[in-house]
Protein backbone atom coordinates (compact mmCIF):
# COMPACT_ATOMS: atom_id res chain seq x y z
CA UNK A 1 0.00 0.00 0.00
CA UNK A 2 2.87 2.38 0.84
CA UNK A 3 4.37 1.92 -2.65
CA UNK A 4 0.98 2.61 -4.28
CA UNK A 5 0.56 5.86 -2.31
CA UNK A 6 4.05 7.03 -3.30
CA UNK A 7 3.29 6.27 -6.96
CA UNK A 8 0.08 8.39 -6.79
CA UNK A 9 1.99 11.20 -5.11
CA UNK A 10 4.70 11.13 -7.79
CA UNK A 11 2.03 11.23 -10.51
CA UNK A 12 0.35 14.28 -8.95
CA UNK A 13 3.65 16.10 -8.69
CA UNK A 14 4.38 15.37 -12.33
CA UNK A 15 1.03 16.94 -13.31
CA UNK A 16 1.29 19.81 -10.83
CA UNK A 17 4.99 20.47 -10.21
CA UNK A 18 4.39 23.61 -8.14
CA UNK A 19 2.71 21.47 -5.47
CA UNK A 20 5.96 19.62 -4.77
CA UNK A 21 7.39 22.71 -3.09
CA UNK A 22 4.75 22.60 -0.39
CA UNK A 23 5.52 19.85 2.15
CA UNK A 24 3.23 18.79 4.94
CA UNK A 25 5.41 19.02 8.04
CA UNK A 26 5.51 16.13 10.47
CA UNK A 27 3.80 16.77 13.75
CA UNK A 28 5.99 17.23 16.78
CA UNK A 29 5.39 18.39 20.33
CA UNK A 30 1.72 17.55 19.96
CA UNK A 31 1.19 19.61 16.78
CA UNK A 32 -2.10 18.79 15.03
CA UNK A 33 -1.06 17.43 11.60
CA UNK A 34 -4.56 17.79 10.17
CA UNK A 35 -4.66 21.57 10.85
CA UNK A 36 -1.37 22.01 9.02
CA UNK A 37 -2.70 20.09 5.98
CA UNK A 38 -5.90 22.17 5.93
CA UNK A 39 -3.85 25.38 6.16
CA UNK A 40 -1.52 24.30 3.40
CA UNK A 41 -4.44 23.28 1.18
CA UNK A 42 -6.09 26.67 1.75
CA UNK A 43 -2.89 28.47 0.77
CA UNK A 44 -2.66 26.45 -2.44
CA UNK A 45 -6.32 27.17 -3.18
CA UNK A 46 -5.80 30.90 -2.73
CA UNK A 47 -2.74 30.77 -4.97
CA UNK A 48 -4.72 29.01 -7.68
CA UNK A 49 -7.53 31.57 -7.37
CA UNK A 50 -5.08 34.48 -7.69
CA UNK A 51 -3.57 32.89 -10.79
CA UNK A 52 -7.00 32.20 -12.28
CA UNK A 53 -8.34 35.74 -11.75
CA UNK A 54 -5.19 37.71 -12.60
CA UNK A 55 -5.70 40.34 -15.40
CA UNK A 56 -2.65 38.99 -17.26
CA UNK A 57 -1.93 35.53 -18.62
CA UNK A 58 -0.18 33.29 -16.12
CA UNK A 59 1.02 29.76 -16.67
CA UNK A 60 2.93 27.23 -14.63
CA UNK A 61 5.42 25.72 -17.09
CA UNK A 62 7.16 22.40 -16.47
CA UNK A 63 10.68 21.69 -17.57
CA UNK A 64 9.41 20.22 -20.85
CA UNK A 65 7.87 23.54 -21.84
CA UNK A 66 4.25 22.53 -21.20
CA UNK A 67 1.84 24.53 -19.06
CA UNK A 68 -0.31 22.08 -17.03
CA UNK A 69 -1.80 25.04 -15.20
CA UNK A 70 -2.81 28.21 -17.03
CA UNK A 71 -5.29 30.83 -15.98
CA UNK A 72 -8.42 31.70 -17.92
CA UNK A 73 -6.93 34.94 -19.26
CA UNK A 74 -4.09 33.11 -21.01
CA UNK A 75 -6.25 30.34 -22.42
CA UNK A 76 -8.96 32.75 -23.61
CA UNK A 77 -6.30 34.87 -25.25
CA UNK A 78 -5.32 31.91 -27.40
CA UNK A 79 -8.66 30.04 -27.51
CA UNK A 80 -7.57 26.62 -26.17
CA UNK A 81 -9.37 24.41 -23.65
CA UNK A 82 -7.57 23.57 -20.38
CA UNK A 83 -6.94 20.03 -21.63
CA UNK A 84 -5.53 21.21 -24.99
CA UNK A 85 -3.32 23.80 -23.42
CA UNK A 86 -1.94 21.51 -20.73
CA UNK A 87 -0.63 19.04 -23.28
CA UNK A 88 1.04 21.55 -25.68
CA UNK A 89 4.65 22.70 -25.42
CA UNK A 90 4.96 26.46 -25.99
CA UNK A 91 6.79 25.85 -29.28
CA UNK A 92 3.53 24.64 -30.84
CA UNK A 93 1.73 27.96 -30.41
CA UNK A 94 4.75 30.25 -30.90
CA UNK A 95 5.54 32.06 -34.13
CA UNK A 96 8.29 30.17 -36.02
CA UNK A 97 10.52 33.25 -36.17
CA UNK A 98 10.75 33.44 -32.37
CA UNK A 99 10.91 29.73 -31.42
CA UNK A 100 14.69 29.43 -31.58
CA UNK A 101 15.34 32.38 -29.28
CA UNK A 102 12.60 31.28 -26.87
CA UNK A 103 14.02 27.73 -26.70
CA UNK A 104 17.52 29.08 -26.14
CA UNK A 105 16.42 31.25 -23.22
CA UNK A 106 14.20 28.51 -21.76
CA UNK A 107 17.12 26.06 -21.98
CA UNK A 108 19.30 28.44 -20.01
CA UNK A 109 16.52 28.80 -17.47
CA UNK A 110 15.86 25.10 -16.97
CA UNK A 111 19.56 24.33 -16.73
CA UNK A 112 19.88 26.86 -13.95
CA UNK A 113 22.02 29.23 -15.99
CA UNK A 114 19.58 32.14 -15.51
CA UNK A 115 16.71 32.76 -13.14
CA UNK A 116 14.45 34.78 -15.46
CA UNK A 117 14.14 36.21 -18.93
CA UNK A 118 11.83 38.56 -20.85
CA UNK A 119 10.89 38.43 -24.50
CA UNK A 120 8.45 40.10 -26.88
CA UNK A 121 7.05 37.46 -29.20
CA UNK A 122 4.06 36.38 -31.23
CA UNK A 123 1.74 33.57 -30.16
CA UNK A 124 -0.57 31.79 -32.58
CA UNK A 125 -4.12 31.31 -31.33
CA UNK A 126 -6.22 28.27 -32.07
CA UNK A 127 -8.04 30.12 -34.89
CA UNK A 128 -4.73 31.21 -36.48
CA UNK A 129 -4.59 34.78 -35.19
CA UNK A 130 -1.21 36.16 -34.20
CA UNK A 131 -1.07 37.84 -30.80
CA UNK A 132 1.90 39.99 -29.78
CA UNK A 133 2.78 39.44 -26.10
CA UNK A 134 5.35 40.59 -23.58
CA UNK A 135 6.55 37.36 -21.98
CA UNK A 136 8.31 37.21 -18.60
CA UNK A 137 9.47 33.80 -17.31
CA UNK A 138 10.86 33.19 -13.80
CA UNK A 139 12.43 30.00 -12.46
CA UNK A 140 11.25 28.28 -9.26
CA UNK A 141 13.72 25.97 -7.53
CA UNK A 142 13.02 23.02 -5.22
CA UNK A 143 14.39 22.43 -1.73
CA UNK A 144 17.61 21.10 -3.24
CA UNK A 145 18.01 24.37 -5.18
CA UNK A 146 17.40 22.58 -8.46
CA UNK A 147 15.08 23.94 -11.23
CA UNK A 148 11.56 22.70 -10.51
CA UNK A 149 9.26 24.65 -12.82
CA UNK A 150 8.77 28.15 -14.23
CA UNK A 151 6.12 30.80 -13.87
CA UNK A 152 5.29 32.58 -17.10
CA UNK A 153 3.45 35.91 -17.27
CA UNK A 154 2.00 37.00 -20.60
CA UNK A 155 0.68 40.50 -21.39
CA UNK A 156 -1.16 41.20 -24.63
CA UNK A 157 0.69 44.06 -26.42
CA UNK A 158 -0.97 43.65 -29.82
CA UNK A 159 -2.52 47.15 -29.69
CA UNK A 160 0.83 48.72 -28.85
CA UNK A 161 2.55 46.78 -31.63
CA UNK A 162 -0.09 47.88 -34.13
CA UNK A 163 0.42 51.48 -33.06
CA UNK A 164 4.19 51.11 -33.36
CA UNK A 165 3.77 49.66 -36.84
CA UNK A 166 1.44 52.48 -37.84
CA UNK A 167 3.91 55.02 -36.49
CA UNK A 168 6.77 53.35 -38.38
CA UNK A 169 4.71 53.36 -41.58
CA UNK A 170 3.76 57.00 -41.06
CA UNK A 171 7.36 57.97 -40.34
CA UNK A 172 8.53 56.09 -43.43
CA UNK A 173 5.82 57.73 -45.52
CA UNK A 174 6.61 61.26 -44.37
CA UNK A 175 10.35 60.67 -44.54
CA UNK A 176 9.94 59.66 -48.18
CA UNK A 177 7.88 62.79 -48.78
CA UNK A 178 10.52 64.95 -47.09
CA UNK A 179 13.32 63.32 -49.06
CA UNK A 180 11.51 63.70 -52.38
CA UNK A 181 10.02 67.17 -52.02
CA UNK A 182 12.01 69.63 -54.21
CA UNK A 183 13.14 71.69 -51.22
CA UNK A 184 15.37 71.40 -48.16
CA UNK A 185 13.34 70.57 -45.04
CA UNK A 186 14.97 71.49 -41.76
CA UNK A 187 14.62 71.90 -38.00
CA UNK A 188 17.02 74.42 -36.49
CA UNK A 189 17.48 76.63 -33.47
CA UNK A 190 16.98 80.31 -34.27
CA UNK A 191 19.94 82.67 -34.50
CA UNK A 192 23.35 82.84 -36.14
CA UNK A 193 24.84 80.14 -33.93
CA UNK A 194 21.74 77.94 -33.65
CA UNK A 195 22.17 74.20 -34.10
CA UNK A 196 20.59 72.53 -37.11
CA UNK A 197 18.86 69.55 -35.55
CA UNK A 198 17.74 68.01 -38.85
CA UNK A 199 18.23 68.80 -42.52
CA UNK A 200 16.98 66.70 -45.43
CA UNK A 201 19.33 65.18 -48.03
CA UNK A 202 18.46 67.88 -50.59
CA UNK A 203 20.93 70.18 -48.82
CA UNK A 204 23.72 68.46 -50.74
CA UNK A 205 22.13 69.20 -54.10
CA UNK A 206 21.37 72.79 -53.07
CA UNK A 207 24.67 73.78 -51.46
CA UNK A 208 27.11 70.88 -51.87
CA UNK A 209 27.26 69.87 -48.19
CA UNK A 210 26.03 66.53 -46.82
CA UNK A 211 23.39 66.57 -44.07
CA UNK A 212 26.03 65.28 -41.64
CA UNK A 213 28.40 68.13 -42.49
CA UNK A 214 25.64 70.72 -42.25
CA UNK A 215 24.33 69.60 -38.84
CA UNK A 216 27.82 69.06 -37.37
CA UNK A 217 28.71 72.75 -37.66
CA UNK A 218 26.21 75.12 -35.96
CA UNK A 219 27.71 78.23 -37.64
CA UNK A 220 27.88 76.86 -41.18
CA UNK A 221 24.53 78.31 -42.29
CA UNK A 222 25.49 81.82 -41.15
CA UNK A 223 29.00 81.44 -42.58
CA UNK A 224 27.67 80.56 -46.04
CA UNK A 225 25.20 83.47 -46.07
CA UNK A 226 26.21 86.45 -48.22
CA UNK A 227 27.39 89.11 -45.78
CA UNK A 228 25.12 91.83 -47.14
CA UNK A 229 22.05 89.69 -46.30
CA UNK A 230 23.03 88.64 -42.77
CA UNK A 231 21.73 91.57 -40.73
CA UNK A 232 18.17 91.46 -42.09
CA UNK A 233 17.87 87.66 -41.82
CA UNK A 234 19.23 87.38 -38.27
CA UNK A 235 17.23 90.40 -37.09
CA UNK A 236 14.05 88.65 -38.23
CA UNK A 237 14.95 85.47 -36.32
CA UNK A 238 16.05 87.32 -33.18
CA UNK A 239 12.71 89.13 -32.89
CA UNK A 240 10.36 86.26 -33.64
CA UNK A 241 7.71 85.77 -30.96
CA UNK A 242 6.43 82.23 -30.40
CA UNK A 243 2.66 82.29 -29.96
CA UNK A 244 -0.19 79.84 -30.39
CA UNK A 245 -0.64 81.28 -33.89
CA UNK A 246 2.80 79.87 -34.86
CA UNK A 247 4.09 82.89 -36.84
CA UNK A 248 5.48 82.17 -40.29
CA UNK A 249 8.89 83.64 -41.05
CA UNK A 250 9.54 84.12 -44.75
CA UNK A 251 12.59 85.75 -46.25
CA UNK A 252 14.74 85.53 -49.36
CA UNK A 253 18.52 85.70 -49.20
CA UNK A 254 21.71 84.41 -50.77
CA UNK A 255 23.89 81.47 -49.72
CA UNK A 256 27.26 80.49 -51.14
CA UNK A 257 27.48 76.98 -52.55
CA UNK A 258 30.48 74.86 -51.61
CA UNK A 259 31.96 75.80 -55.01
CA UNK A 260 31.35 79.50 -54.12
CA UNK A 261 28.59 80.18 -56.64
CA UNK A 262 25.64 82.16 -55.30
CA UNK A 263 22.33 80.39 -54.60
CA UNK A 264 19.21 82.41 -53.88
CA UNK A 265 16.86 80.70 -51.39
CA UNK A 266 13.42 81.43 -50.06
CA UNK A 267 13.32 80.44 -46.39
CA UNK A 268 9.87 79.84 -44.86
CA UNK A 269 9.62 78.56 -41.29
CA UNK A 270 7.26 78.22 -38.34
CA UNK A 271 8.62 79.08 -34.88
CA UNK A 272 7.97 76.98 -31.77
CA UNK A 273 9.50 76.43 -28.36
CA UNK A 274 12.01 73.59 -28.06
CA UNK A 275 13.56 71.97 -25.02
CA UNK A 276 14.84 74.50 -22.53
CA UNK A 277 12.67 77.23 -24.04
CA UNK A 278 14.87 77.89 -27.09
CA UNK A 279 13.13 79.05 -30.27
CA UNK A 280 13.17 76.26 -32.85
CA UNK A 281 12.30 76.78 -36.51
CA UNK A 282 10.66 74.13 -38.67
CA UNK A 283 11.08 75.26 -42.23
CA UNK A 284 11.96 74.74 -45.87
CA UNK A 285 14.62 76.24 -48.12
CA UNK A 286 13.55 76.55 -51.75
CA UNK A 287 16.05 77.28 -54.52
CA UNK A 288 14.79 80.47 -56.22
CA UNK A 289 17.97 81.26 -58.18
CA UNK A 290 16.26 80.89 -61.56
CA UNK A 291 13.26 82.82 -60.30
CA UNK A 292 15.57 85.63 -59.17
CA UNK A 293 17.41 85.60 -62.49
CA UNK A 294 14.07 85.87 -64.33
CA UNK A 295 12.97 88.61 -61.96
CA UNK A 296 16.17 90.55 -62.62
CA UNK A 297 15.85 89.99 -66.36
CA UNK A 298 12.29 91.30 -66.31
CA UNK A 299 13.36 94.26 -64.20
CA UNK A 300 16.18 94.93 -66.66
CA UNK A 301 13.80 94.71 -69.59
CA UNK A 302 11.53 97.22 -67.89
CA UNK A 303 14.28 99.85 -67.71
CA UNK A 304 16.59 98.95 -70.61
CA UNK A 305 16.35 99.21 -74.36
CA UNK A 306 16.07 95.66 -75.77
CA UNK A 307 18.23 96.38 -78.86
CA UNK A 308 21.20 98.22 -77.35
CA UNK A 309 20.98 97.32 -73.65
CA UNK A 310 21.17 101.00 -72.73
CA UNK A 311 18.78 102.61 -70.26
CA UNK A 312 15.44 103.26 -71.97
CA UNK A 313 13.65 106.62 -72.26
CA UNK A 314 11.30 106.07 -69.30
CA UNK A 315 14.01 105.09 -66.83
CA UNK A 316 16.32 107.82 -68.11
CA UNK A 317 13.69 110.42 -67.25
CA UNK A 318 13.44 108.95 -63.74
CA UNK A 319 17.20 109.22 -63.31
CA UNK A 320 17.18 112.84 -64.49
CA UNK A 321 14.28 113.62 -62.11
CA UNK A 322 16.28 112.16 -59.22
CA UNK A 323 19.48 114.04 -60.16
CA UNK A 324 17.60 117.35 -60.42
CA UNK A 325 15.99 116.88 -57.00
CA UNK A 326 19.38 116.30 -55.44
CA UNK A 327 20.86 119.26 -57.30
CA UNK A 328 18.09 121.60 -56.08
CA UNK A 329 19.00 120.79 -52.44
CA UNK A 330 22.73 121.29 -52.79
CA UNK A 331 23.71 118.17 -54.72
CA UNK A 332 26.08 118.05 -57.71
CA UNK A 333 25.40 120.03 -60.88
CA UNK A 334 23.40 118.32 -63.62
CA UNK A 335 23.94 118.40 -67.39
CA UNK A 336 22.53 116.57 -70.42
CA UNK A 337 23.95 115.60 -73.80
CA UNK A 338 21.46 114.89 -76.60
CA UNK A 339 22.98 112.78 -79.42
CA UNK A 340 21.60 112.12 -82.90
CA UNK A 341 23.53 110.00 -85.43
CA UNK A 342 24.45 111.64 -88.74
CA UNK A 343 23.75 109.71 -91.94
CA UNK A 344 21.90 106.88 -90.24
CA UNK A 345 18.77 107.15 -92.41
CA UNK A 346 20.86 106.35 -95.51
CA UNK A 347 22.10 103.12 -93.90
CA UNK A 348 18.53 101.99 -93.20
CA UNK A 349 17.41 102.95 -96.71
CA UNK A 350 20.27 101.24 -98.57
CA UNK A 351 21.24 98.30 -96.36
CA UNK A 352 17.96 97.63 -94.51
CA UNK A 353 16.83 97.88 -90.94
CA UNK A 354 18.81 94.80 -89.92
CA UNK A 355 22.06 96.54 -90.83
CA UNK A 356 20.76 99.67 -89.11
CA UNK A 357 20.19 97.72 -85.88
CA UNK A 358 23.77 96.46 -86.01
CA UNK A 359 25.06 100.01 -86.36
CA UNK A 360 22.87 101.22 -83.49
CA UNK A 361 24.21 98.48 -81.22
CA UNK A 362 27.81 99.36 -82.11
CA UNK A 363 27.12 103.05 -81.52
CA UNK A 364 25.63 102.27 -78.09
CA UNK A 365 28.70 100.26 -77.10
CA UNK A 366 31.03 103.07 -78.18
CA UNK A 367 29.05 105.61 -76.18
CA UNK A 368 29.27 103.44 -73.07
CA UNK A 369 33.00 102.91 -73.52
CA UNK A 370 33.72 106.62 -74.07
CA UNK A 371 31.49 108.00 -71.31
CA UNK A 372 32.52 108.24 -67.68
CA UNK A 373 31.25 105.26 -65.61
CA UNK A 374 29.24 107.68 -63.48
CA UNK A 375 27.25 108.84 -66.51
CA UNK A 376 23.87 107.39 -67.44
CA UNK A 377 23.73 106.55 -71.17
CA UNK A 378 20.29 106.01 -72.73
CA UNK A 379 18.67 105.32 -76.05
CA UNK A 380 15.67 107.63 -76.38
CA UNK A 381 14.38 106.01 -79.58
CA UNK A 382 15.42 105.58 -83.24
CA UNK A 383 18.97 106.89 -83.58
CA UNK A 384 18.65 109.34 -80.67
CA UNK A 385 20.73 108.88 -77.49
CA UNK A 386 21.24 110.91 -74.34
CA UNK A 387 23.80 111.10 -71.54
CA UNK A 388 23.11 112.28 -67.99
CA UNK A 389 26.20 113.93 -66.48
CA UNK A 390 26.50 114.99 -62.83
CA UNK A 391 29.13 117.22 -61.23
CA UNK A 392 30.46 118.61 -64.55
CA UNK A 393 30.63 122.22 -65.73
CA UNK A 394 30.89 123.52 -69.28
CA UNK A 395 34.55 122.68 -69.99
CA UNK A 396 34.21 119.09 -68.73
CA UNK A 397 31.02 118.68 -70.74
CA UNK A 398 32.79 119.86 -73.92
CA UNK A 399 35.64 117.39 -73.32
CA UNK A 400 33.19 114.53 -72.82
CA UNK A 401 31.25 115.43 -76.00
CA UNK A 402 34.50 115.55 -78.00
CA UNK A 403 35.37 112.04 -76.87
CA UNK A 404 31.90 110.76 -77.84
CA UNK A 405 32.18 112.34 -81.31
CA UNK A 406 35.59 110.73 -81.87
CA UNK A 407 34.23 107.31 -80.84
CA UNK A 408 31.20 107.49 -83.10
CA UNK A 409 33.05 108.67 -86.22
CA UNK A 410 35.08 105.44 -86.36
CA UNK A 411 34.05 103.01 -89.17
CA UNK A 412 31.26 100.58 -88.27
CA UNK A 413 30.45 97.09 -89.63
CA UNK A 414 27.08 96.29 -91.10
CA UNK A 415 27.23 92.69 -92.27
CA UNK A 416 29.88 92.58 -94.97
CA UNK A 417 29.79 96.37 -95.42
CA UNK A 418 31.86 98.95 -93.61
CA UNK A 419 29.97 102.19 -93.02
CA UNK A 420 30.62 105.50 -91.37
CA UNK A 421 28.30 107.49 -89.18
CA UNK A 422 28.95 110.59 -87.21
CA UNK A 423 26.86 112.45 -84.66
CA UNK A 424 25.49 115.82 -83.73
CA UNK A 425 25.49 116.53 -80.00
CA UNK A 426 23.69 119.23 -78.07
CA UNK A 427 24.30 119.94 -74.40
CA UNK A 428 22.57 121.84 -71.61
CA UNK A 429 23.58 122.69 -68.04
CA UNK A 430 20.67 122.56 -65.60
CA UNK A 431 19.60 125.66 -63.71
CA UNK A 432 17.56 125.95 -60.48
CA UNK A 433 14.28 126.24 -62.38
CA UNK A 434 14.93 123.35 -64.79
CA UNK A 435 12.73 120.26 -64.96
CA UNK A 436 13.48 117.09 -66.86
CA UNK A 437 11.31 118.26 -69.76
CA UNK A 438 12.93 121.70 -70.00
CA UNK A 439 16.44 120.29 -69.72
CA UNK A 440 15.81 117.67 -72.42
CA UNK A 441 14.21 120.31 -74.65
CA UNK A 442 17.19 122.67 -74.32
CA UNK A 443 19.70 119.90 -75.10
CA UNK A 444 17.55 118.75 -78.02
CA UNK A 445 17.43 122.26 -79.47
CA UNK A 446 21.21 122.57 -79.17
CA UNK A 447 21.60 119.26 -81.03
CA UNK A 448 19.41 120.50 -83.90
CA UNK A 449 21.49 123.65 -84.20
CA UNK A 450 24.65 121.48 -84.35
CA UNK A 451 23.10 119.35 -87.07
CA UNK A 452 22.00 122.50 -88.91
CA UNK A 453 25.60 123.70 -88.94
CA UNK A 454 26.69 120.60 -90.82
CA UNK A 455 26.74 117.95 -88.07
CA UNK A 456 29.72 116.19 -86.59
CA UNK A 457 29.96 118.76 -83.83
CA UNK A 458 28.87 119.73 -80.30
CA UNK A 459 26.97 122.87 -79.28
CA UNK A 460 26.29 123.79 -75.65
CA UNK A 461 23.07 125.55 -74.74
CA UNK A 462 24.40 127.31 -71.66
CA UNK A 463 21.55 129.82 -71.15
CA UNK A 464 19.85 128.59 -68.02
CA UNK A 465 16.15 129.32 -67.31
CA UNK A 466 16.98 131.59 -64.34
CA UNK A 467 19.32 133.65 -66.57
CA UNK A 468 16.84 134.40 -69.37
Task: List the SSEs and their pairings.
Layout: H1 2-15, H2 33-53, E1 57-61, E2 69-70, H3 72-78, H4 82-86, H5 96-110, E3 116-124, E4 130-141, E5 147-156, H6 158-180, E6 184-189, E7 196-199, H7 202-207, H8 211-216, H9 220-224, H10 227-238, E8 248-256, E9 262-273, E10 279-287, H11 289-303, H12 313-328, E11 334-342, H13 344-351, H14 353-370, E12 376-381, E13 384-390, H15 394-408, E14 412-414, E15 417-419, E16 422-429, H16 436-452, E17 458-461
Parallel strand pairs: 16-17
Antiparallel strand pairs: 1-2, 1-5, 3-4, 4-5, 6-7, 6-10, 8-9, 9-10, 11-13, 11-16, 12-13, 14-15
Helix pairs in contact: 13-14, 14-15
From the alpha-carbon coordinates, what is the Rg to the nearest angstrom? Answer: 48 Å
Please report the total strand number as a whole number.
17
> What is the average of the pLDDT values?
85
- Shape, per Cα inertia axes: rod-shaped
Strand line-up of the largest beta sheet:
2-1-5-4-3
Protein structure class: alpha+beta
Largest sheet: 5 strands, antiparallel
- Count of DSSP H/I helices: 16
Helix content: 40-55%
Distance between the termini: 152 Å
Low-confidence stretches: 1-12
Task: Classify the beta-strand content into a percent band.
Answer: 25-35%
Amino acid sequence: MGDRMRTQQDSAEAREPWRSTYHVPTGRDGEDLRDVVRSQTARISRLEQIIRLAPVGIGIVDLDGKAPLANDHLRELLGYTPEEFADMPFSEYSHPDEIAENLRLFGLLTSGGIDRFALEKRLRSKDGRLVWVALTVSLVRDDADQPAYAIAMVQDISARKRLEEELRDAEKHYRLLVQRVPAVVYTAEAGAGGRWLYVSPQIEQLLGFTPEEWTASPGLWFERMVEADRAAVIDGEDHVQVTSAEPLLSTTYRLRHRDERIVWVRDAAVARRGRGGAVVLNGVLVDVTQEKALEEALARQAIHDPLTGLVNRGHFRERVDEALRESHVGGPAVALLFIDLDGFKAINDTLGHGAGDVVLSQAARRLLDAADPACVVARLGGDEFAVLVTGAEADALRALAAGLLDALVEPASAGTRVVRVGASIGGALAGPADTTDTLLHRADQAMYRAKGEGGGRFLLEDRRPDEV
